[in-house]
Amino acid sequence: MAFIMKHIFARDILPFLRVIAPLLKEIGEQNIIYIENVLWYLLEKAESSSVEKVIDFFKEIVPEEKRGEIMTLGEQLIEKVRAEALKALDQIALEKLQEGEAKGEKNKSIAVAKKMSAAGFDINAVSKMTDLSVDELKNLIH
Length: 142
Fold this sequence. Notes:
Helix content: over 70%
Order of helices and strands: HHHHHHHH
Structural class: mainly alpha
Mean pLDDT: 82
Strand content: under 5%
Number of strands: 0
Distance between the termini: 67 Å
Number of helices: 8
Shape: rod-shaped
Number of domains: 1
Low-confidence stretches: none
Radius of gyration: 29 Å
Largest sheet: none
């Protein structure tokens, strides 16, 4: 596990895993839970370019009768990552929508302020009606 932790942030951890594949295979024959924990850690922390490749690697090194467990664990982790990614994308989309709405409201206020100013309204009245500061209005008008 120390070897894996040492290389966890490598661009692609698969080459490092292949170095210790015989050891992992031996451990997998005796203690599949340890292998599942290593896989879980890798999929949570590693910078591997492909989750599926890591899962396939582990399917290769564990005994055939345990491969279903690895696949199930891998599918669970993939689903968790997808759910987290969708949640993050939803948050980004919401923030962008709010930014767009705020910008649109600001632009509308500026347009109204320009029309009111052109119609001769007092700058303080324009400020009050548009929620733009007097300084902002002075910059817009001049």
